[in-house]
Structures are given as structure tokens and as C-alpha cells.
Specification:
Pro-sigmaK processing inhibitor BofA, transmembrane, rod-shaped, mainly alpha, transmembrane helix
Length: 87
């Protein structure tokens, strides 16, 4: 094979990978964000299930699920503190 054919095949594969990989990144970002929100809702569900003995209740909505999903356990603790001391 001549070098021109090899270079054109390699550059064609690189361009193909760039075109295919571009639309996947926003979907991956959206999917990861959605998974974090669902995990945050599960954190809040378990908090509400366990916290009923102690009078702890944090409503589950998109804002509280996002905070607890992105920040994790410290976010849940912050939501409980806000619910208890401020509201």
C-alpha cells in the first residue's frame, strides 16, 4: 500500500471517530446528571423513612433531590439542618 492510502485511511478514521464521539458527550452528561438526581431522591426517601422516628422530614422534589444527589451525604445533612433550624 502506498503511504497516501494509509494516511487517508487513518485520517478518515480519526474524522469518523470525532464525528461519532461528539453527540455522545452531551447525552452522557445528561445521563449522569439524571442518575445523580435519582440517587439524591433515594437518599431523601431513606432519610424520611428512618427520620420519622426523630421528627425529620425533608420533602422530595427536584431541587432537594439535585442538592442531595450532587453533594451526597453532606447535602442531605445540610438539607436537614436547613429544614430544622431555618424552616
Amino acid at each position: 500500500m502506498s503511504p497516501i492510502v494509509i494516511i487517508s485511511i487513518v485520517s478518515g478514521l480519526i474524522i469518523l471517530l470525532l464525528i461519532i464521539g461528539t453527540p455522545i458527550k452531551p447525552l452522557r452528561f445528561f445521563g449522569q446528571g439524571l442518575i445523580k438526581i435519582v440517587i439524591g431522591a433515594l437518599f431523601l426517601f431513606f432519610l424520611n423513612a428512618i427520620g420519622t422516628k426523630y421528627g425529620i422530614h425533608v420533602p422530595i422534589n427536584i431541587a432537594t433531590s439535585t442538592v442531595s444527589g450532587i453533594l451526597g451525604i453532606p447535602g442531605v445533612v445540610a438539607l436537614v439542618a436547613i429544614q430544622h433550624y431555618i424552616l
